[in-house]
Design brief:
Layout: E1 2-6, H1 10-19, E2 24-29, H2 32-41, E3 45-48, H3 54-59, E4 67-70, H4 75-88, E5 92-97, H5 100-108, E6 117-120, H6 121-134, E7 140-144, E8 149-155, H7 167-170, E9 176-183, E10 186-189, E11 201-206, H8 208-218, E12 230-233, H9 237-248, E13 254-257, H10 260-269, E14 274-277, H11 283-288, E15 296-299, H12 304-317, E16 321-325, H13 332-337, E17 342-344, H14 346-355, E18 363-369, E19 374-380, E20 390-391, H15 392-395, E21 403-410, E22 413-415, E23 422-423, E24 428-434, H16 438-441
Parallel strand pairs: 1-2, 1-4, 2-3, 4-5, 5-6, 12-13, 12-15, 13-14, 15-16, 16-17
Antiparallel strand pairs: 7-8, 8-11, 9-10, 9-11, 18-19, 19-24, 20-23, 21-22, 21-24
Helix pairs in contact: 1-14, 6-9, 6-14
């Protein structure tokens, strides 16, 4: 496909990097330094210009493009880019927004603003956080096949019962597949004789109940099952959506917001949330409100530094798990190194969501592991697939190393993949792919 990406910030550059090997990519940005960086770092055509300008869109020949992705940091700009592109072509348009009001308008009116697909950064980030809260021991969780399948990533702690065990010894779960081990900068496909070491990150795919059982095994000191007590610090848009989504799922979260007016509005809009108006760095307040007893603390303030401080305070007070919203991608590893359990970067989350629309092979869903080291795809199998009508032990011989069949659903029913399992056309298959073989393997699926 020929794809025009407008905006070479973190989201745009991430999408471009992920797609450059398989597609013809044109990147447009007003910033000459960004354009220069893209020119020398990726195999793309980088153009300096204003994506809202018809002159610029004509310059990059929007009429021959298959897709335009508007990924600047300004909602209104992205909407105008898509509207302008659709006014002069039939190109498929994707817009990134932060304000959920635009998303609601778009959802209620088919192709409003001339946009074919809209993604909301704040809402996607909140949904990502809520999935992690559902499995407290996990670092990352994604759902596939309408919720029948989960992918989860766990870090193996020092005192874990599985530390030092081989995969064969740890694999005691009927509806679970060990996909890979992430160690340092390497991705190792999980095999029976692979040994789980302290601080390894293990990726599993399976039935949600089996994933939860494994969570209790790999980290028995974590709260069992779903977290019960959740404290959200910061009434930002992301903090608001985390509280709302948790409330919809039967939680009674507590939310701390310093601004009195914002706290009042949140209390009115979140009937299932206890809103407390106070400075979240006030240790006496945190101790008085027993914040240290929480299973989960979500730091959703308006700066990375504040979120780091609040998370560390929470850990000092005894919070079981902390998740921090991190706006600067380069800080994610740093925050996790100093003790934050889960760092969520909204821009990475939205880049992942947009990326799945551009994949070859008809991917129904996609999750990126550790940004881009690996990926998990959900694919509906057709008659042309290498997997169709053959037992797995035979069909995988035609796939490159670095591919793991993680789960199968047939007519909504979960099937554990085994060597003699025959995959049929119409099945939904969830597959783990090492990034180095993704482009080769995906068309075969």
């Amino acid at each position: 496909m020929r794809i025009i990406i407008v905006g070479a910030g973190q989201v745009g550059s991430s999408i471009a990097a992920d797609l450059a090997d398989a597609h013809e990519i044109v990147v447009v940005d007003r910033d000459s330094d960004r354009v220069e960086d893209m020119t020398y770092s990726l195999d793309v055509l980088a153009v300096e210009g204003d994506g809202t300008s018809l002159t610029t869109l004509d310059e990059v020949d929007v009429g021959t493009a298959d897709m335009v992705i508007a990924s600047t940091d300004d909602d209104e700009t992205n909407i105008v880019i898509c509207s302008t592109a659709r006014a002069v072509s039939d190109v498929f348009t994707v817009a990134r927004v932060k304000n959920t009001e635009y998303l609601r308008t778009w959802e209620r009116s088919e192709r409003a603003f001339g946009i074919d697909f809209m993604v909301c950064t704040n809402l996607l980030a909140a949904e990502s956080i809520v999935r992690v809260v559902g499995i407290p021991a996990a670092r990352d969780v994604d759902s596939f096949a309408d919720g029948c399948v989960q992918m989860a990533e766990f870090e193996v702690p020092r005192d874990s019962p599985v530390t030092g065990q081989t995969i064969a010894e740890a694999d005691r779960f009927e509806q679970l597949t060990f996909a890979a081990i992430l160690r340092d900068d390497e991705v190792e496909i999980a095999r029976g004789d692979s040994t789980l070491r302290e601080h390894d990150r293990v990726v599993v795919i399976g039935n949600p109940s089996a994933v939860s059982e494994f969570a209790s095994t790999v980290a028995p000191n974590e709260p069992p099952g779903t977290a019960e007590e959740v404290v959200i610090v910061g009434g930002s848009e992301i903090g608001y959506h985390v509280a709302r989504l948790l409330g919809d799922r039967g939680f009674k979260p507590r939310l701390i917001e310093q601004d009195p007016e914002r706290a009042r509005r949140l209390a009115e809009e979140l009937p299932n949330t206890v809103v407390m108006q106070n400075d979240a760095t006030d240790i006496e307040f945190l101790e008085r409100e027993h914040v240290g007893d929480a299973d989960f603390l979500v730091a959703a303030l308006d700066s990375d530094e504040k979120n780091l401080l609040v998370s560390l305070l929470g850990e000092r007070l005894g919070v079981d798990r902390t998740v921090a919203v991190i706006d600067t991608a380069e800080y994610v590893d740093l925050f996790e190194t100093v003790g934050i359990d889960v760092a969520v970067n909204p821009r990475e989350v939205v880049a992942e969501e947009i990326t799945r629309f551009t994949r070859d092979g008809g991917a129904e869903n996609i999750a990126l592991i550790e940004s881009d080291r690996a990926e998990v795809l959900e694919v509906e199998i057709d008659d042309e697939s290498t997997l169709a009508g053959r037992p797995i032990h035979e069909s995988v011989q035609d796939l490159p190393d670095g591919v793991v069949i993680g789960a199968i659903t047939r007519n909504g029913e979960f099937i554990t993949p085994r060597g003699d399992t025959v995959i049929q056309a119409g099945d939904h298959v969830v597959v783990f792919l090492d990034a180095s073989v993704a482009d080769e393997a995906t068309p075969l699926l």
